[in-house]
Amino acid sequence: MNLLETINLKRYFGETRAVDDVNLTIAEGEFISIVGPNGAGKTSLCNVVSGLLAPESGKIIFKGQDVTRASVIERVKAGIARSFQLVNLFDDLSAFDNAALAIFSRENKTRNLAMLAHLDRDVIAEADAVLGQFGLAAKRNEAARGLAQGERKLLDVALAYALRPKLLFLDEPTSGVSTRNKGQIMDTIASVVRGEGITAVIIEHDMDVVFKYSNRIVVMHQGAILAQGTPDAIRKNDQVAMILLGTSGPDAFSRKD
User: Fold this and answer.
1) Of 184, 1, 192, 175, the residue nearest 81 (C-alpha)
2) Could you give the CA distance from residue 81 to residue 210 in angstroms, rounded to a whole number?
3) How confident is the model over 160-184, as pLDDT tens digits?
4) What is the DSSP secondary-structure string of the chain?
5) Which of 131, 187, 230, 237 is the most buried (most CB within 10 A)?
């Protein structure tokens, strides 16, 4: 069953066609990567679907309902959430308080947040559980600004996850993270989203990450979908290799370095 469908979706910035007549379907339970060169429209597409940008035209159908003109809050309530390439945390608050605030926001408990977060037993339990799922239990009381970059990335994803989405967009979840830590971060994210049956869409430049974790890859170029398919099919696509790497051939991706 399709969870999300975009129909002739368009978003322009002046003469730039950031999202150019995109028709995309995402089935429940998929783990998809959206890839493409800088300026391909990946983040713009994510922003339009999640409600941060309004489309010029087209439709967004989520769980069978037209959400094209729905607000960000309405989409979050419907089950669409996202993390950001530039981590979006309350740096002066602890990891626990960040998680608790996300839960209070989801539940519309927005009054006296600082006090309520330490009095609501259900929120305390859920916030601690979320931190535990993302390997951050030991960092519970540490201010977000003091976390390592990989931990900040995980906390940002954890906050989006705390909104209990059906569809989770992750914008560059491994950017700025050392190669050594990328696998650990992606293993954690993949374990949580797959274990909870969440449909995940990652925007990612690291093709090793893309090939390892995705069951389908969507390639964008100049605002449009250039190709899509299994990791094996994309790996063998010479046009994709030329766009992403500037070279082609049977081993283009394996010799990218």
Assistant:
1) 192
2) 20
3) 999 999 999 998 898 888 888 899 9
4) -EEEEEEEEEEEETTEEEEEEEEEEEETT-EEEEE-STTSSHHHHHHHHHTSS--SEEEEEETTEE-TT--HHHHHHHTEEE--SS----TTSBHHHHHHHHHHHHTT--SSHHHHTTT-HHHHHHHHHHHHHTT-GGGTTSBGGGS-HHHHHHHHHHHHHHT--SEEEEESTTTTS-HHHHHHHHHHHHHHHHHTT-EEEEE-S-HHHHHHH-SEEEEEETTEEEEEE-HHHHHT-HHHHHHHHS--STTTTTT--
5) 131
